[in-house]
Amino acid sequence: MTNQTSSMNSKIYLSAPHMSGHELEFIQEAFESNWIAPIGPNINGFENDLENYLNFNSHVTVLSSGTAAIHLALNM
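RE: above sequence
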């Protein structure tokens, strides 16, 4: 077996999620405020914070998955 064949059969393991302890509070807040759709104040705030952090003077858009990001990029 060559290195190329063995590397094609190797697995890529994902890391376990890191929970800081505040996730349940944020989930409860989202349900109580009825912002469980793909928009809302937390997402808008995150986009604004990301724009400021990157010193980016245009719009930043966050998406729910890498697949959605690829789809958006291919449609531009």
